[in-house]
Amino acid sequence: MAGRKAFTATAGPGNVLMQEPMSMAEMMRLPTVVVVQQRGGPSTATVIYSQQEVTLTATGGNGEGMRVVYSTAGHQDLFDYTIKAFNTAWKYRFPTFVLGDGYQAKMRESLTIYDPAARGIELTEPEPFVGREGVPSKDRLPSQHRNTFNLEEELYEKVTGDAREYEKIVPEVAEYQSYGIEGAHLAVVAHGVVFRAVREAVEKLLEQGLKVGCFRPVTLRPLPVTQVRDLASGVKKILVVESSYGQLARLLKEAASGTAVEILTFLKPGIGITAGEVEAKIKELI
Amino acid sequence: MYPQPVMPRSWRVETKPHKFCPGCGHGLILKCLGEAVDELDIQERVVFGCDIGCSLLAWDFFNLDTVQTHHGRTTPVMTGIKRARPELVCIAYMGDGGGYAIGVQHIVSSAARNEKITVVLANNTQYAMTGGQMAPTTLPGQKTETSPYGRDPEDTGYPLLGPEMVSAVTREGAYVARGSIANLRQLKGFLKKALENQLAGKGFSFVEALSACPTNWRTDAAETWNFIEKDLPRYFKLGEVKLPGAGRGEVRANG
Ligand SMILES: Cc1ncc(C[n+]2csc(CCOP(=O)(O)OP(=O)(O)O)c2C)c(N)n1
Ligand code: SF4
Ligand SMILES: [Mg+2]
Question: What domains, with CATH codes, occur in chain A?
C-alpha cells in the first residue's frame, strides 16, 4: 500500500492465516507475494514433502480466489518464479503465490543466480496507494481503500468486474510444460517437485518405446485450461500423480470436464514419490 | 440558513452528515482527531486506518488517505505503512472489540516493539455494529445482547484496562492516555500529544477514548451522559498513564 514491494513466506497453518489478508488483497487489488513451502497436513503434521496446500492456495479464503499460483519444482524455479511473481503481482494486481514444498526448502541443488536486467527482465516499478504527493482535497482526491459495501449490487459489480479482468489475463499468465505427449496413449500429470520424478519415469519408458507423455501445469491458478483440454482430447488416459489426496486431480477434472478422457490417480498424501514408483504404476496401466 | 457547526479542515465535507447514529461518540472523537490534525498541519502526511465495527463508517470521513482493514488488523496495517514510509503519520482507529479482543495481540506486540504509530481506540463497552454484544470492556452487571442478566465477572472477568495494559508493555518513548467524550478539550489534548509523540519519532502512542453508543445501550440523552460521565470512569480512570519520558502525566481525575 505504501509503495514498497513486500512479500511473506509461510506454510501450513500459517498459510491458513495468510488467506485472511490475501482475500483482502484480492478485494482491494493489492500487489502481494506469498511464498509457501507446503507442509504435510491437516494443520501442523509434518514439514517436509507435501502438496496438500493446493486447494487452499489456489482457491483461498472467502471470495472467488482470483490469484496467480506458480508451482515450483526446484531451486532454479524458486529463484525465477519469485522474480516473476513480483512482476505478475504488480502488473495485474492479483495476489500472487510461489508454491513450493518443504522438500524444496530443505534440499540442496545448484542454481544460477542472476541479475534480472542482464536477462532482459524488466522489473515492474512499485507505486504507492496511499501517501502520494499533495494535500488531499486541495491538490488531489484522498485515496480511500475499503472493503465494505452498503448494497449487494455494489459488491456484485465490483466482483464481476474483477472476474472479467481476471479471465482476460489467463492466456498471458497461465504456464505449463509438456513432454512426449504427441501420439501418447497415457499422459501423466503432476506439478512441482513430483513432476521431476514423473518426467524421469516417462523419459525412461519412452526409450523403451511406450506411448506415454507427461504434462506439468506450472500455474495451478489459473490452470492452463486450453492446454489441459487439448491434452484430454488427445490421450485415452490421464494419470494424476501427487503428494496429496487428489487436490490437483480435482482441478484437472474440472478443466477436462466434457472430454472423453479417463482420469486415474496415484495419490500419496504427505510423502515423497520416486521415479521408480511412477514407472511401476504406468506399466500397470499400459 | 442556520449557522453550521465548524468542521475541521481535515474532514471531508461531501461525506457529511456522517453515518454514525445520533448521539454516537465516534463523531466526537473524530472531531477531536480532525482538529488535532489541523492544528499540527499534517493533513498531507496522515494515513488513517479504520477497523471493522462502527469505526469503518469513517472510511470516507476525512480528507485523509484511508485504509479500512479486517477486524483487529488496523494496528499491523498501519505499522507496515509506517515502516515502509516513516515520513507518514499513521493513525489506527478502532473499537474496543477490534482492539481488545480479536486484535489485542497486535496492540500488545506493536506496543512492545515501540512502533512509531498512533492507536486511537473508541471504548463503548460493547460490540456496537453487530447489535451490542458483550466485549472485554463491558462493565460488571452491564446488560448486553450476550449478557442479558448483566456481565458476571466470575464467568467472563472484569473490564480489560487497555491503557494500563499497553503501559505495562511499553518502555521509554511511549505515550499512553485515556480520555472521554465527556471532556473533549482534554481528549483533544491527548490526541494531539499522541500525534506529536509520533511526529517526534519517540515511540508508540495510544489513546483510549470512552465513547457512547446510545443505540445499543438503549439510553436516552440523560442516561447516556450519566453512564459516560459517572459509571465508566469508576472502572476506566481518566488521564495520562505514561509520558515519553517514562513519567506520569496529568493527574488522573479519578485515580
Ligand atoms: C473477523 C471478523 N469477526 C467478526 C466480525 C463481525 N463484526 C463486525 S463489527 C463487530 C464488532 C465491532 O465492535 P468494536 O470493535 O467494539 O467496534 P464498535 O462497533 O463498538 O465501534 C464484529 C464482531 C467481522 N466483521 N470480522
Ligand atoms: S451503533 Fe453505537 S457505536 Fe455504532 S454508530 Fe450507532 S451509536 Fe455509534
Ligand atoms: Mg465497541
Answer: 7-173 (3.40.50.970), 177-285 (3.40.50.920)
